[in-house]
């Protein structure tokens, strides 16, 4: 049985925006298993300088990420789209175990299969240390 994750390609502006919002909502759960289900079983990622292959590695990567990046909160914005590709820009904020807050800025390029699962995700990300009072992304709690 094949997993299907609407909206499906080919994307319109409306369906691309919906796909971006669904991704933002899923990542903000900080649930690696849930997030991994939006990707093909053999999905390919580049996240900064880390290369991830398949759902099992996605779960392991996200588990470790959210163990280090505490109170993580993400915002994504549609940048561009084609029939089966979406580009987003994003920012997220988190703090480390010592209480230092960071804002990460970046861009992602996504490619989807016919069932709406992401088969490729390439992310370029830069971090900036910030003061707690400079946070822009509202906390979830």
From TrEMBL:
<dbReference type="Pfam" id="PF07080">
    <property type="entry name" value="DUF1348"/>
</dbReference>
<dbReference type="InterPro" id="IPR032710">
    <property type="entry name" value="NTF2-like_dom_sf"/>
</dbReference>
<protein>
    <submittedName>
        <fullName>DUF4440 domain-containing protein</fullName>
    </submittedName>
</protein>
<dbReference type="InterPro" id="IPR009783">
    <property type="entry name" value="DUF1348"/>
</dbReference>
